[in-house]
Amino acid sequence: MKDTKLGTRVIANDGRPPWYSHDGQNCDTYIVGIAGASASGKTSVAQRIIKNLNVPWVVLLSMDSFYKDLTPEQVKIADNNDWDFDSPDSYDYDILIETITKLKQGKMVDVPIYDFETHTRRKDKHHTVYGANVIIFEGIFGLYDKKVLDLLNLKIFVDTDADICLARRLKRDVAERGFDVQGVLQLYQRFVKPAYDNYVYPTRANADVIIPRGLENLVAIDLLTKHIQRQLQDRKMKSRWDLARIEPPLAPSPNVIVLKETKQILGMHTMMRDANTSRHDFIFYADRMATLVIERALDEIPYEPQVVETPTAKTFNGLKVAAQIVGVSILRAGGTLEVGLRRVLGDIAIGKILIQTDPSSGEPQLHYCKLPQSIHAPDCYVFLCDAVVGTGAAALMAIRVLLDYEVPEDRIVFLCFLAGPQGLHVVSQAFPKVKIVTSFIDPVLNADTLYLEPGMGQFADRYYDS
């Protein structure tokens, strides 16, 4: 049976790095704006740049997605080729600027899809974009609005001969947008050409670079690509291995909560570390430890007074949890805490985040995300689960994902079996309001010996026997 608490939105992409500011104020997202006449080759230039960059986290954003919805009366005018789609007033700049701003901050956005047959943005479908290192924004008025210009790092104007633009527009609008030839010519003469002369062409003055002939000018495009690559290299943040080598303080942050080292805790860790422990026993002790970690994490959740009547007709002044709690597992190791979550919290809704390491750079990348709908509730707390925190890279990315879903930082409690000092320090420095609950801090965990201490091996591999 489907859990009605679970959301249906799924984010899946080619991966993105987590190394950007958690407060959204100092992000390294690089935004390129491309403007020019209708059918001048803006999209082709943008696609060529993306191909040359050859990185997996580039977003192409078209200004055509942000046309205003037309009323039924305006649709009739548009069907008679009497509506001016080439006026600056045809665009919803409020939604456009909000979208670019969120992308620049690395946040998730729903980009509208404009239906050129109905002249409205589709209500049943949108394009979900989850952040990027590079955003290529293209449109005829890409360099027109002052607020948009302030968000751009590089401004490009594609300057193509007017006759070529007209021929391309005829081909595109007839084949792709269902217009007839006479209608396209009528619109061009009445609206497109005057708008270019009065509004679009003057924006050349706002461009950093002007590309004559559009896609035919491969030399200029390739030079621009190299410039963007240099900018990205200059803005590149520390890799996970650099973070792992940060010298941690002698004492962990006050927000790091470690289970008291009792004989029971030490005994269970001994069993889990013993290479001779069977998989059955390893799972048994891991589930027990997970339960203890989760029970300790519940002390960090708000409670409120509650008076109840006992079976003997007495009153008892107690407490009840004053918050919703959802779980989120960092796949696949975080799944090892799910049995404990369900033992302690019963019907808790659990989301999934898949983060994998890029073998070429050692950096974590987000590949999949599905979170419970209740994560947006004002009283919701999130128990974010992973087995081990070594360098802290995966934890950084997972917390960043939750923040992008507008989960308050102080409502996130990170749970793990084992943590290294470097990883704890990195996460605490980046997200000081996040509570971290672990059963043990192991000084052996570092960039060179991560997960390789005697007996533990890869935690998830031992748990899942793979």
TrEMBL record:
Pathway: Pyrimidine metabolism; CTP biosynthesis via salvage pathway; CTP from cytidine: step 1/3; Pyrimidine metabolism; UMP biosynthesis via salvage pathway; UMP from uridine: step 1/1. This is Uridine kinase. It holds the Pfam family UPRTase. It catalyses: cytidine + ATP = CMP + ADP + H(+); uridine + ATP = UMP + ADP + H(+). GO terms for biological process: pyrimidine-containing compound salvage. It is an enzyme of class 2 (transferase). Belongs to the uridine kinase family. Gene3D superfamilies: 3.40.50.2020, P-loop containing nucleotide triphosphate hydrolases. Residues 31-219 form the Phosphoribulokinase/uridine kinase domain. The keyword Nucleotide-binding applies. Keywords: ATP-binding, Kinase, Nucleotide-binding, Transferase. NCBIfam families: PRK05480.1, udk. GO terms for molecular function: ATP binding; uridine kinase activity. It comes from the Eukaryota. The gene is UCKL1. The keyword Mitochondrion does not apply. Residues 261-465 form the Phosphoribosyltransferase domain. Its EC number is 2.7.1.48.
